[in-house]
Amino acid sequence: MEEKMPAAEAAEKETVSKNFIEQEIEKDLAEGVYDHVQTRFPPEPNGYLHIGHAKSILLNYGLAKKYGGKFNLRFDDTNPTKEKVEFVESIKADVQWLGADYEDRLFFASDYFEQMYECAVLLIKKGKAFVCDLTADQIREYRGDFKTPGKESPYRNRSVEENLRLFEEMREGKYQDGEKVLRAKIDMASPNINMRDPVIYRVAHMSHHNTGDKWCIYPMYDFAHPIEDAIEHITHSICTLEFEDHRPLYDWVVRECEFENPPRQIEFAKLYLTNVVTGKRYIKKLVEDGIVDGWDDPRLVSIAALRRRGYTPESIRMFVDLVGVAKANSSVDYALLEYCIREDLKLKKARMMAVLDPVKLVIDNYPEDEMEDVEVPNNLENPELGTRKVPFGRELYIEREDFMEVPPKKYFRMFPGNEVRLMGAYFATCTGCEKDENGNVTVVHCTYDPATKGGSSADGRKVKGTIHWVAAKTAVKVECRLYENIVDEEKGKLNEDGSLNLNPNSLTVLTDCYVEPELGKAKAYDSYQFMRNGYFCADCKDSRPDHLVFNRIVSLKSSFKLQK
User: Does the pTM of the predicted model rise above 0.70?
Assistant: First the structure.
């Protein structure tokens, strides 16, 4: 049963269970079971990787690094019906971006097809595998269930010679898809259904992205995977909990195929994140229906989407480290991921002035044609980032919410008669506003005090409100995209008909935003803090020099607090 882990608890969870895999590895090394550590990340190239895969990548790479071992990237490409070169390339990019260095150890399961075929022949010769003519439906029927033992196939006792001939004919293409399979001969009465004579090879007349039309039979994952690990001298095959029931079959394969010093499978809990969609079939439908603009849409948590939105490898590594490694499934609050990116960016990024919902502010007593530069710090929390010059003039843009004609109590921004600080520039006193025929404010008016340059007064008077601004004359117009979770899990991730319960407000596009000139130089993936509006990243897909697009990575504030 999956239990939900609050963000704070997840962040606090620095328990021994985090290190249970390390404890097992250290025991194996101490007892001489292995004299080295070798791990791997073995994705199937049938989609884009997501945040859960990031945990597996960083865990496997981190274990190899900690024990002076080696880390492989290997594609488990045994199912040509769903695999694409596009997915291979995207996965390589993701692994490299996360910093998991596989050096020259990039492998494909398909590189080992000949060795897998030889392993299957060995099993036939040992009387441990047979060619079966039952259909897929019949095999399921014969398998039984948790209460009923399976029934042996009528083809189970074919002679070794007949099985070798039929298997060779399967390879030669003499049979149609589904006409024959090769099955391991184990135990149809086993309480573990995976051990009830599983299929290990099937006929599939499909072109393969790596081997072309060389093969028309392909190994099943449960047979191929342990052989791949053994060939590569993997010591510890780290996988998620759903493979725990497959472990006896994994061990059976490497033992019966007579590999020396075979790898050991250890399972850990998957990473479940609230309010997100990770299922490939759901994401595929979102893409096909045009609800998202691809597998890298910033509302998704594919690694490509997180990168496009502006997440950093460091923030993902921090998140994975805080979540830890557990033996029981749990869900982690999305807020923890947001906490990690805020923590990573807060001292690294300049705090820039950007107005997302603009209204014009006119300083009536400022010279009409004059412009000047004011100096502002790049990051008050990190003086090492220095300062920059920002142009200032008579007409500015301010946030619409920074003016109210009739303010509530404790509103310290602009309203008639109130004095505020224009950040880094001057004190200004609001004198009124202009409205259109519908009563909407179109222009706010104020006067400034020339003696308060830099944002402080010689007479020591204080102002309670400070607002940011952008000079209208030099402002750069940009598009900003604000994101929320694509599903509302509070109402249930799925509707009664099985469709996703989508959040209609998952994307807000603001087309009339104004930013200071420095931001006009932003290139893909450049990120900044927009004062009071959050952290933003220049979009890598839609942003152009003549039309800049910024994605909000995360807002500035959260209710989440890391427990110390």
Answer: yes
